Amino acid sequence: MPFPGPAHRFPTKDEMADYLEAYGRHFDLPIRTGVRVERLSRAGGRFVAETATGRIEAEAVVVAMSDHQAPRVPPFAPQFDPAVLQLHSRAYRDPTQLREGPVLVVGAGNSGAEIAIEVAASHPTTLAGRGTGHLPFAIDRGLGQRVLAPLLLRVVFHRLLTGGTPVGRAVRPQFLSRGGPLIRLKPRDIDAAGVERVPRVVGVVNGRPRLEDGRILAPTNVIWCTGFHGGLDWIDLPVLDATGRPRHRRGLAVDVPGLAFVGQTFLHAASSTMIHGVARDAAHVVATLCRESTQRPAAAGPPTASPPPTSPPPPRPARRSARQAN
Asked: Is the pTM value of this prediction over 0.85?
């Protein structure tokens, strides 16, 4: 189902949401919105997903969610003075949420840089953290949009930086442990907005943040742009490693046959959290799960929820959609 609209263009969030809604209607997918899976386990040879509206049994499960689920803040955050308003980027909406006075934005990746520039228009703003680098071209206009962005997204992120290449395996830990490069902003944009750049926040002294260089700041607001945990602790199966990430081989759980993942950071490639990357990963795990299901005997007992749709699985999104959304 091709993405509507012209090529070489990034859609808005609403256009992307409209596309996903239309996708579900077109293929008559049994989507249950507002239903949260609270626990995933196995019983009688089948997977059991427990939700607030009942349980769903299945022979196979694909966890199709990103690893940006549970906000991550430093362990010393509770030591801040209670008078300091603390927000995680997940809860931030606009500067009206903030109190009068200075704002400290912690984390200099894309979210931190964009939020810092926005709040700097109304508050003295400091941005703390290591720089994550930036793209050396404008991704959403001119030559960058038509040539360099497709080259980056479809060649470098999709084919070069994968688990199957030496360079991909070398850079994967960096993708998992730190923020990505600034996409639409440059360091000069941060400077032009009047945002002060400072080193990392490493602790608290008398309720105030202490920087790596020993300076003590006195903000009235702190916005944590420090990333997320995977939020997969609801999976009651031996599949997560010590860091809370799934143990897998290209999306297929190592120790739990029939369980797979898509949407995770660098699941197979740097593009695994992007439209074209998750499409390739999904095609791989679905083909493998279907092949495995024909090689094992059917589990006893009928399912306790609606059966899967009888319509064929949707095709992979058109190639040009990768240039339009990530």
From this structure: no
